[in-house]
Structure formats: C-alpha cells, structure tokens
Specification:
2 copies of one chain form a homodimer.
Chain A (H helix, E strand, L loop, with lengths): L12 H10 L11 H6 L20 H15 L3 H12 L8 H16 L3 E14 L3 E7 L3 E3 L1 E3 L11 E8 L2 H5 L10 E4 L10 H6 L1 H4 L1 H7 L4 E5 L25 E4 L1 H13 L12 E6 L2 E15 L4 E11 L9 H19 L7 E8 L7 H16 L1 E6 L7 E7 L5 H11 L5 E2 L11 H5 L4 E6 L4 H4 L12 H20 L24
Parallel strand pairs in A: 5-6, 6-7, 7-8, 11-12, 11-13, 13-16, 14-15
Antiparallel strand pairs in A: 1-10, 2-3, 2-9, 4-8, 5-9, 10-12, 14-16
Helix pairs in contact in A: 3-13, 3-16, 4-11, 11-16, 13-16
C-alpha cells in the first residue's frame, strides 16, 4: 500500500498559528499537502504562504506506552546477550567469507527463536576480496618494519614488493598542490590525522585520503599509497576500510599503517628532508601486498517482522549491518547495531498499547565493502514495498550511548520527535534537528523519501577500534548498549503507534541541508 | 683494585649508639667489619652483639651537589632525546638481528659523541631464534582466528599445523592437579590473568605459565601450549616473552593469544563443557608456528665511563639493556633504561663537586632471551674488575616515574640512602627498604656482593605494552622519563661521591629477604 499525503489535523488553530510563526522559509515545502492547500486563503491578490500541516502528536496512551518501553528496556540486557552470542559464535563476517555465511545463519535462527514472523533472506551479490598479507618496510635511512594492512579493495603488488621513495603530504589538496611530476614514481604518504569528535565528523574529513587518495595519486603517476590510519587509536594497529578506484585512473596498491608507525615515518622524513625538496624523498620504502579479487559471491539481507495492529501493512524499519571487516570481530561495527535493532524491535513490539505499525528488522549484507545490501533492499521490495515504509532508523556507530535525537521527518512529525525526546531526556539525550541523514545503509530509502529517525550514537571513542583487530566484545560498555537500545526502542515504538498516514519526506528547497553523519565506509 | 672492608668512622658515639638501638638482629652480619670489632666490649663472659659499623653520610658539600644534580636534571630533556633517537634510527633490537647490530653501533657512537671515555664493546654470544609466523584458529564449535604470537624460544609445528582439543586451566598447579592422562594429546590453555600492580609483582606471579608451563605440559603428554598473554593490555595484541624448556621434558610448541581472544576462547569453553569432563575438551583448535633456531651469533655489551677524581678506579655502574623483543620498538623495554642510564650518568658526572668514583654505563646484550650480556660481564672483567664495583643500579621497568627508593647496601650506607631520599622526596618518591634485588641484569653482580641501589619505577601501566607491538615512543611520558632520570642521577651522584671504602653486601642471616622485583624476562 502506498502512503498518501493527506494529514488528519488534531490541533486547534491557535497552535497551528504558533507553528506558522516559528517555521522557517524552508518549511513551506510542506505547503504541498492538501491540508495546507485547504488552509491557504483564496481571496488575496498575492498568495499568502500556505499553512503548514498541523502537528501530529502522540496520544496520552501512546506516551504512557513509550514510558513503559523505556522502563522495560532499562531493565533488559537482551542486546548485550545478543552481541555476546554473535561474537562468541560467529566473530568476523566479512562479505563473502565463511563468517558472513555463519552470520546470516545466526541471524535467521535468532530472529526465528525470538518470535519474529516473515523471517527470510534476500539474496545479495557481494564482491569477494582477499586481504592477503601486507608488509611495509622502511629501507632507508633507518630500516624498520611497520604495522600495516591493505586498504579494502587494493590490488596487490608484485611478489617482490614495490620499492620507491615517498612523498609525504597531509591530504589530497596538498598532493594536488605539489609541482607537476613530484609524485611520479613515488609512494604517496597521506599523513593527515583524524580528529576525535562526538558526532564522528572527524572521520568524514579524514577518510577522503583513503577512499579517493589512491586514484588521485595514481593519476599523478604515483606507484603506491600509504596512509596514516583513518582512526584515533594510539595503538600499533592499522585501521582498514575501503578505497574507491576511479575507473579512469591507474589502479595502484594502497595500505594503511598504524598511528605510531606514521609518527615514526614522519620523524624519519623530518630528519632527512633535502633542501628545497618535497618531504620524504630521502626515505625509501618497500610495500608488499598479496591482496586480490575473486569472483563475486552470494550473501543476504536478513529480514524479520513483528506485526502491528490496525496499520500492520505499514513498516517501521530498524536496521544495522550484519557484515563486518575481517580484522576484528565486528562487535562495535556493527554487531552493536544488529543487537540494538533486534532488542529494540522486541521491546517496542511487546509494549502496551501495542504498536499499530509492523516493526521490521533488516540486517543488511555488505555495508563495509560497497553498501550491497542497502542497494538491493528497495529493488527487491519494489516501489510499493518502499511506499509502505513509514519511518526508518539505523544503528551503525557502536554501542553508544545515544547523545542526541535527530530526525529527517515531514515537519508535522517534528512535534512527535519532541515528545519522544521528553521521554528519553533523562537518559542524557539532547534534542537534535530535523536535517539528519541517518546512516549509510539508509541512503537508498532516504533518497526515495522515507522519513528517517536518527538517535545519534556517541562516537568519541568509536574510531579507536573502528575497522581494527580491536573490535572485540571487551570494548563494549553494557550500560551504553542498554541506553542506546532503550532510546531506539522508545523511538521505534512512538513512530509505530503515532497517527498517519505518513507522507514522504521531501527536501526543503530554500535552505538545503548539509550532511551531518559521516559516510560509514 | 679490590675494595676492602675497613670503614672510616665519621660520627660520634651517641649517634652510633642510637643506630645500634635501631638495628635488627639481621644487621649483626655487619659485625665482621674491623670498626665493629673494635667497638665490641671484651670484658663480659657472654659476648655482647658486636657493634655495627658507624653510618656513612654525605657531607654538606656532597648534599649540595646532589641538589644541584636534581635541579639540572629537572631542566633536561636529554633522556627523551636519546630515546627518540634510538627509536627513530634503530627500532627493534632483538638478539642477533640487524637491529641488534644497529643498536650496538648507535650506542658506541652515542657514548663517544657524548664524551664518555673507555667506550668499548664486550663480545657476547647470543642465541638466534626466528619468530616466523604463528596462527591459532578455533576449529570447533565456532570457527575463528585469534591474534597470536610464538613464545620466545618455541619450536615450530609441522607445516600443516597441530590440531587438538584443548584443556583449559588457570595455572600450573591446576594443570598438575588434573586426573592423570587428562592433558595427553591436548593443547593446554593456561588462562590465568595477570594482576595489575605498581611494583610489577603481578608479572612475577603470572609469568610461570609462560616460562615453565610448556615443559610441565610436555611432561604430562600435551602436544602444545597456548597461554593468555602475560600482560595487562586489553588490546587485541599478543604479548611475547621467553619460555624455558626443561632438558628432561619433551619440547612442545607454545604461543600466546591476546587477552580479548583469551576471553573469547574462555567463552567458547564455557558454552561447551561436557558433563564431568575437564574444561575445554569440546573446543578443537589448530596452532601453527614456523619459529626455529639458528646457530648462535655475536652481539655485545656496550660500555662507557665518565671518570671520577680521587676514587676513579672505583665504579658506580648504571645499566639498562640494549636488546629488545622483535615485536615493538624496544622503547619502554628497555630504550627507556638505556636513555635513563646515559643521561643520568652525564648529569651526575657534570655536577659540582665532581663525583669521586667513575660512573660507568653498561648497556647489556640480550637480556630478553637469556640474560647473555649480564652473565658475560663479570666473567669478562674478572674478579678484580668486579671488586672495583662500589655500587650498581639498573633501569628496566619503563619510563617510570620512580615511586620508591630501595636498596641492598651494607647497613652503614642505609643512612646515605635516607639522605638521597630526602633530596628526591619532593618528586613523590617514597623511601623503600634495604632488601631490593635490583633488576635481572644485576643478578650476577648482586650474587657477587656488589651493593645495589634500586630506584623503583612505577609499573602500573608498563605491562600494557610490555613485549608487544605497542612498545613505541608515543607511549612514553616525557615528564615521567625526566623524573626517573633525575632520581637515577641524584642517586648515582650520591654514591659516587660518598666516602668509602665500600664493603661487599652480605646477606643477613637471621632474616633472609624475599625477592621483591619480578623476574624481567
């Protein structure tokens, strides 16, 4: 069923007038709704701004139900138990590996065991890349071996490795600003540091060196790329993650080294910089990578529903991704999201009064290495399936806690979000704004207009372990996971019980929003 | 020159009497000195306890000099600069490797450049062991790969690895208490956790599983050993260190796994314990190690002197070890000790008034994998050379800070230590006792009676990085290193200027001391 646009007004004119006064120009987008058109006066020569649709609010009973969800959730350890089970019984779940397959089996069994209905998999074709071995050695001036790993998707080097001087730059702009020919025949060392931030924005800024750096360096004649790990760990472990080769640039191999090794390489460069030359040319290195591509293989999105009542054909989607990188155990990234999604869905669905909409858990395949499952989902369910999605939310930034409740919902639902916020405010959750992008796996649904709820997870320490061997269970704080599960559960419950029909979200035209969430790759 | 026993008294009888009153029975050992014999009354029928030798105290000028050393040292960053240089230009220095050779060259050049005299090397034969690759995989019930490394000295496995069920125990006593035959054909998993302590004593308790465990397991018919890392790191990195095969037991290969992996293995064991069986038998693993021994090779102790004045033929030795494990960069273990020794010696030697004794820096070869250099040193210098050593001190527990000043000196020098303590007390240094063993490299000299000074380094976080890849420069706190260098410099200065001759230390007979320092291997 398609969700149509008409909005049922529930509020008096005084409240509506106050809302008009507080709305910015960008909010007039919502004037397209029939309700707004009805409110527009027809007798003036210059058309007045059409009235916005009236706010949609939770009933007293629904609010009491939301508080009940919160209280139940704060007593539950189910998300931690799920995470411990996934970690102990499966571990890493990199796309196309035996772990990926075991993860899908775990998810299907777990959803069935926990009483979900309509439990099924959705076939997803995923790339299959073998990390192989990687080594990175300084040959001169001071020989030493560094802790390294291949960047996801990197091609390999010749068996004997690749020997070259380095060119050290802070970022892509600095590389592009070098005199022509400087990078030719060299290994480019991207040495920019990632900034530690609560909202993860430091990652978004730093990650371009990894994703785009190899192709840009390749187009400038470089033979390889080494990056300072995009991550905040001070441990001698290298952070992996994916690169994105540009089809028109030469493919060159790329590795990351740990932050302490990058410090050391920087010191060697500083000691040996020849007068008037680019930094690093007196430092010779050897990199060796046995990474390689294999034919694509099959993986799967795993889906399960907890049916609603009178609006059971409308979906509130909670998602995480089932895959992980191969280095760690896929706990914070994104076992935590898987656990939050399943446990929050169950807490919301078992509340009283029962949620009206169906709460669906989707555990996406291969987020890390190409967003395969997220791209497949709307295609597999078709336009009508997408249209049934009233709201969607994603957990993919670790165990939390949730520190801010943001959204990207039709304006008339913002008051609902404010109500939800009042229910979870005591858990140290701020109220965010209505411009959130949600997470990476929500991209395709968001672009199709599905309204997004965005409980923002605290990312302050997340990038210490992100995409490393250190993504293990002992790094999880059970109290954080419980708080995050609670906020997701309350939010899911509220939007599963609130009145509809829920229109599509349409981008405000006057003041385009800027993306807030980091690209999660 | 041999240092003889007579003690020159400098104090009045009242002070001597007070000292007698405060001395315990164990202190009567010192009655052998001629001064004490002179003081013993000869007219009573039952011989009274002989009087102890009078305390030896620093003069007012010497104390002022010690305070001057402290003030200079607190303004100096030389030890950090030395450590940065060693780290940047050499890195790992495992016995017999190219890094070991580069370390010796660095040390000779550095001591010469810094004005040391008599700079020379002392040939030391060291074992040569190749770590190779190691893998440790759980095959059942839940397949996953764990982060592992070979224990130093381990033999290898067959190329295809070694498949066996495990037997999980907390320690050697628990293994020995199992029913006969339980360990036969199994891989023994020593799962005991190391306790975090300030004095490093937690290490001493935990390390037996690594050093003695493999031979004990081998004698019980086990085919391999895996240990929880002896270390306090919560990172997914394995701590190495040496084992000690017993010649009469079968040699079996041994690896360590990271603490988070040990947690995970423990969880798999807990989930699958069959009724009435030893823990772990339903967990099957495969370990593979390509470690191997090569013929012994040459390394060297590196020695340099800063000559004293009228007692220049007496030595105050400050030592650290130049070698390191191959995993990290040998920064806290024991680049910090090398840097402290060199910088402290220079600070002490340049004070006014000048120290009377020669301050000698010895950077020992191969402490980690057999104490080769420490064993060689007294043999190479001979009995007379050893007899010239008035005092010795060692830095080998990281960058510090020093939290306690202990010693193992003839009783008449304890008041000197108390004076030194008053000079460094403002740096948050406690006064310890006179039963310290010093460090592992001082063992041979200590057993020959050389008095020991022991500024104790704070080991609270040291075992987070000990014997791991994380032993890198960024883990060093320059303020800690400066404080430690200061305390070593003040202590070395004081015992290089204090009156002599300094007798050998002899073990008190009534109350044998218990070892305080952990075995540093």
């Amino acid at each position: 069923m398609t969700i149509h646009l008409p909005v049922r007004g529930r509020l008096g004119l005084a409240f509506a007038a106050a809302c008009i006064a507080s709305l910015s120009l960008s909010d007039t987008t919502f004037a397209q709704t029939p309700a707004a058109q009805t409110a527009a006066p027809s007798t003036t020569a210059v058309p007045a701004p059409p009235a916005p649709p009236p706010p949609v609010l939770l009933s007293r009973e629904a609010l009491a139900g939301a508080i009940g969800v919160r209280e139940q959730a704060l007593k539950s350890d189910e998300s931690y138990q799920l995470l411990e089970s996934l970690t102990t019984e499966v571990g890493q779940r990199f796309a196309g590996t035996a772990g990926d397959k075991a993860g899908v089996e775990w998810a299907v069994k777990t959803l069935r065991d926990l009483g979900f209905t309509n439990v099924h998999t959705q076939e997803v074709i995923v790339p299959r890349w073998i990390r192989g071995e990687a080594s990175f050695d300084v040959l001169a001036p001071y020989p030493m071996s560094m802790v390294t790993t291949a960047i996801g998707g990197s091609i390999g080097t010749p068996d004997e490795g690749l020997d070259a001087p380095i060119v050290m730059v802070q970022d892509i702009a600095a590389l592009q600003a070098l005199p022509e020919g400087t990078a030719r025949g060299k290994i480019v060392f991207f040495n920019g540091r990632m900034e530690r931030t609560r909202d993860g924005s430091g990652y978004g800024k730093a990650v371009r060196a990894r994703t785009e750096g190899p192709s840009i360096a390749g187009s400038l004649g470089a033979v390889g790329v080494v990056i300072r790990s995009v991550g905040t760990s001070k441990n001698r472990i290298a952070h992996t993650g994916t690169l994105s080769y540009n089809v028109s640039s030469p493919r060159i191999p790329a590795v990351s080294i740990s932050n302490p090794d990058a410090d050391l390489l920087e010191r060697q460069v500083a000691q040996t910089r020849p007068e008037g030359k680019a930094a690093g040319q007196a430092v010779k290195v050897r990199m060796r990578v046995t990474a390689r591509d294999l034919p694509q293989v099959r993986s799967a999105n795993v889906i399960g529903d907890l049916p609603g009542t009178d609006l059971a054909n409308e979906i509130v989607l909670i998602c995480g991704h089932l895959d992980s990188w191969d280095t760690g155990h896929g706990v914070q990234d994104d076992g935590a999201g898987v656990a939050i999604a399943i446990a929050a869905a169950r807490l919301a669905a078992s509340a009283n009064p029962k949620p009206r909409r169906t709460i669906r858990v989707v555990l996406f395949a291969n987020e890390e290495f190409g967003l395969s499952g997220a791209g497949r989902y709307p295609v597999a369910i078709g336009d009508e399936g997408v249209a049934n999605h009233a709201f969607a939310m994603e957990a993919d930034l670790g165990d939390g806690p949730v520190w801010k409740l943001s959204a990207r919902v039709p304006q008339q639902y913002w008051p609902t979000i404010e109500q939800v916020h009042r229910v979870v405010r005591s858990l140290e959750v701020e109220l965010g704004d209505n411009t959130s992008n949600g997470g990476a796996d929500l991209g395709p649904l968001r672009r199709l207009g599905v309204p997004i709820l965005s409980p923002q997870l605290d990312a302050t320490t997340y990038f210490d372990i992100h995409h490393t061997v250190n993504d293990t269970l002992d790094q999880v704080d059970p109290a954080h996971l419980r708080q995050s599960t609670t906020v997701f559960a309350v939010t899911a419950y509220a939007v599963a019980i609130v009145d509809g029909p829920v229109p599509r979200y349409e981008e405000p035209q006057a003041a385009p929003t800027t993306p807030r969430a980091p690209p999660e790759r």
